[in-house]
């Protein structure tokens, strides 16, 4: 059912009492590429789901899972890859 590896971030607690959700893709070494912030009216909670080592295609597949399969949607907050210049 999950488009990429899915699990929980050890040592964390999310709104639902479990660990913070993590989706891990195939882009080894990319690190945290972004987050999805979701609101689940059925569970009456808001969660942050971490995207680690995900390609752009894998991020899109996670978005489709959240929108089309789970019906909870989510706001994608991508990691800023630009550096500030002074």
Structure explained in plain terms:
One of its GO terms (molecular function) is inorganic diphosphate phosphatase activity. This protein is an alpha+beta fold. It has one domain (about 5-80). It is about 15% helix and about 35% strand. It has 1 helix and 5 strands; from the N terminus they run ββββαβ. It has one helix at about 55-70; strands at about 5-10, 20-25, 30-40, 45-50, 75-80. The protein has a 5-stranded mixed sheet, covered by helices on one side. A hairpin with a 4-residue loop joins strand 3 (about 30-40) and strand 4 (about 45-50). It is globular, with a radius of gyration of 13 Å. The termini are far apart.
Strand-helix topology:
Layout: E1 5-9, E2 20-24, E3 32-40, E4 45-52, H1 56-69, E5 75-78
Parallel strand pairs: 2-4
Antiparallel strand pairs: 1-2, 3-4, 3-5
Q: Tell me the number of helical segments per DSSP (H or I, 4 or more residues long).
A: 1
Q: Mean pLDDT, nearest integer? A: 90
- What string gives the helices and strands in order? EEEEHE
Q: Radius of gyration from the CA trace?
A: 13 Å
Number of strands: 5
Helix content: 10-25%
Contiguous uncertain segments of 5+ residues: none
Structural class: alpha+beta
The total tally of domains equals 1
Strand content: 35-45%
Give the terminus-to-terminus CA distance.
46 Å
Shape: globular
Q: Biggest β-sheet, characterized?
A: 5 strands, mixed
For the largest sheet, list the strands in their spatial order. Answer: 1-2-4-3-5
GO biological process, one term: phosphate-containing compound metabolic process
GO molecular function, one term: inorganic diphosphate phosphatase activity
GO cellular component, one term: cytoplasm
């Amino acid at each position: 059912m999950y488009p990429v590896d899915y699990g929980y971030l050890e040592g964390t607690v999310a709104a639902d009492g479990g660990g913070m959700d993590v989706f891990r893709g195939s882009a080894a070494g990319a690190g945290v590429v972004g987050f999805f912030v979701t609101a689940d009216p059925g569970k009456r909670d808001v969660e942050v789901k971490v995207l680690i080592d995900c390609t752009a295609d894998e991020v899109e597949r996670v978005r489709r899972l959240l929108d089309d399969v789970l019906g909870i949607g989510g706001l994608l907050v991508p990691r800023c890859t630009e550096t500030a210049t002074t």
